[in-house]
Specification:
Layout lengths: L1 H17 L13 E3 L4 E6 L5 E6 L2 E6 L5 E6 L5 E9 L3 E17 L1 H4 L10 H5 L2 E9 L18 E5 L8 H14 L3 E7 L18 H10 L2 H8 L11 H4 L15 E5 L1 E2 L10 E11 L8 E5 L2 E2 L1 E6 L2 E6 L7 E4 L7 E11 L5 E2 L5 E5 L2 E4 L2 E10 L18 H7 L9 E5 L8 H19 L6 E4 L15 H11 L6 E4 L16 H14 L11 E8 L2 E7 L5 E3 L8 E4 L6 E2 L1 E5 L2 E5 L8 E4 L10 E3 L8 E2 L4
Parallel strand pairs: 1-7, 7-10, 7-24, 8-10, 24-25, 25-26
Antiparallel strand pairs: 2-5, 3-4, 3-6, 6-7, 8-9, 11-23, 12-20, 13-19, 13-23, 14-18, 14-21, 15-20, 16-17, 16-19, 21-22, 27-28, 28-33, 29-35, 30-31, 30-34, 32-33, 34-36
Length: about 625
Amino acid sequence: MKQLLILQLFLFSVYTGTAQVKLPALVRDSMILQRDEKVKLWGWASAHEKIEIRFRGKVYKATAGADGNWMIQLAPTKAGGPHNIDIIASNKITLHDILFGDVWLCSGQSNMVHQMDIHDVTYANDIATANYPQIRQFLVPTLTDLQGPQHDLPAGRWVPAVGEAVRPYSAVAYFFAKKIHEKYKVPVGIINASVGGTPIEAWISSEGLKEFPAQMAVIEKNKDTAYINSFSRQAAPAPQPADAGLANAPAWYDMTYTPKGWRNINIPGYWEDQGIRDLNGIVWYRREIDIPAAMTGKAARVFLGRIVDADELYINGKKTGATGYQYPQRRYNVAPDVLKAGKNLFVIRVTNTAGKGGFVPDKPYCIFAGNDTIDLKGYWQYKVGAVFPPVTTPVKRITLQYQPAALYNAMIAPEINYTIKGYCWYQGESNTGQPKQYEKLLPALISDWRQQWGQGALPFLYVQLPGFQDYSYLPVESGWAMLRESQTKALSVPNTAMVVAIDLGEWNDIHPDNKKEVGERLALAAMKKAYKEDIVYSGPLYQSAVIEGDKIIVSFTHTGGGLITKDGEAPATFEMAGADKKFVRANAKIAGNKVIVWSNEIATPVYVRYAWSDNPVNPNLYNQEQLPASPFRTDKF
């Protein structure tokens, strides 16, 4: 009897332990739920356990299935709050500070990731004045899964956009949400599920990739854990030679070190452009900087532009900052006790493993404290600390977040029960090598997500890639331009809108600083597609071209109040070709809502292009509403 009693107590404790109702990470205090729609609340309990939800005087009931899953739909609720929600079973959970408003899933790669904190100089005032308790972000942690869709996230919380808490917000998503909130006076929730450097196929479910045999084959292969584990055993890089700057005491950053054999080099600039041929390795930079007494005894900041690839900064022998990759821009805080009046030793250790190494031009390089700023550009001294041998046998690696469906499974699938207003998407940089495939993958993503959420054709808003890389003053072929073309073609999918950002790029940074205009242009698109406003929300889009003698007359949609050029000059970056398909720069002029294009070199034109390069020099065609025209071409070769 004693043993039976112990067994019964054990079974009761197991039962009551598993009977505790559990909620997904998304369903928690301070969440924003979608207004004016039936809203799902769900979770887990013991098999067949009865669940009760009490909200605004109503009682909703459900019974968990044999697998413990349960779901309850709340009736549509108008915008507002805060509310409490009681969830009662064998235990009771009360959710506090719940608002109803509009919820947007914001996803993509690094330009959607980039936080307000990374752009805290450009948006210092926006951070300082952030006081929007009804804008809240749920930041989905970076996760992958190769086995299949997951049902929950390991962590996360809803964070109001107030004060310093706004720093981890996606900058694009923040300015999007702010514009929507100020326009409609409703709470705005952002679910931020984005990861830098990721291809679109990683964000699509296996069901959404069924028409892509190559991706499906990879998905099936990746389910073999032995196959995946074979990579991890071989992923360690080959040992590199010791860094002379650290191998012997004193280290080259130490104040007692006496430099010998150092040479002059300029910052900014790549060392391959300054007399060092094809070096992958470690290069040290040093310079003495005179600091006035007025800059000492207070916090300072050092801006070191962008460095390829990794760096460590030492000031007066103290390690002050470090970054392990070429992004983001270096902005290091300097403690009040580091700088001293007079000469200060700055030492930068730079590690580069491929391509040109060093300091990217046309970026800020300075130190400032209070109202004083000292320029750090100019001649420094350098010495090579290590030379990495050429890689003869590539290391066998697998990057999990590049794998088809891997990010969908872990970062999107857990949200599909959460009722939303629509999607914001900013991605494509990782697919510029296969732009024609992207033409099919983007519609596949849109269709897949809409099917997974089961809310019909929700608005899907996306950003066309901005200009990036070297300017081309002669006609060229361009993978970035073709990717933009593939993005434009996705407008054939119903209830979509594309933000043209060709004018917002930076030649030397894949992460341009201007995130505010991107977010606000997305908000314009949302006002049209989600809120049904009668507004101009897009820049001019190519419609048709007619050949008349030695000219081509191009017509556009979305001309708004009329076509203009941003700078008041003639339309730039137009190109023409005849039957020989050899493009030349062309002249252009605006005639009403059309553009007439011609070239004295081509008597019988056949094709026309606009802004067709990785980074067009001056894409100045706009509508009166100050929205830029999208790049286009009429040829198909």
